[in-house]
Amino acid sequence: MKGYSVLNFPEQSAKARIIEANISLKDSINIAHYLRGMTLEQAKNAIDAAIDKKRAVKYFRYLDSVSHRRGSGPGRYPIRALRIFRKAVDNVEANAEFKNLNLEKLRIIHLTATKGKMLRRYSPKAYGRAGGLDRDLVNIEIIVEEVKE
After folding, report:
1. Residue 56 belongs to a domain with what CATH number?
2. Is residue 23 domain-resident?
3. How many independent structural domains does the chain possess?
4. What is the pLDDT of residues 34-80, one digit of tens each?
5. Neighbouring-strand partners of residue 108
6. DSSP per-residue codes, 72-114
7. How far apart are CA 89 and CA 94, in angstroms?
8. Would the pTM of this model clear 0.85, i.e. be above it?
9. Does 53 fall in a domain?
């Protein structure tokens, strides 16, 4: 299927994408790493707890000046990016429900955040010059699979 980084999908799976979200790429990569491998219910609870600032998202990359949080190590509360990830989780849950999958047994097997299109804008400077204001947009892919126990 065009656009996904995974070529072969499992039989009992559902997928969703969010294209060109205006969120931080570094935060998105850390959130994707944090949520990968969780069940769908665990992922929703973790996102809601981080939005409410009860539990931080543990960072594993881009750690320069990231403070230590009690119970998780270095982490932050990237609320804007977490809201977009919550939309992706809700979307893949709706897709799985449409395919008649068991929602209690769904596990995130693939979750990536990749760089999308770049927004190029300009800011006026002194003496008639202009400086660039570039912003990367983020693409999010999520695939869940029904786990057999």
Report:
1. 3.90.470.10
2. yes
3. 1
4. 999 999 999 999 999 999 999 999 998 888 888 888 877 898 999 99
5. 144
6. TEEEE--HHHHHHHHHHHHHHHHHHHHTT--GGGEEEEEEEEE
7. 9
8. yes
9. yes
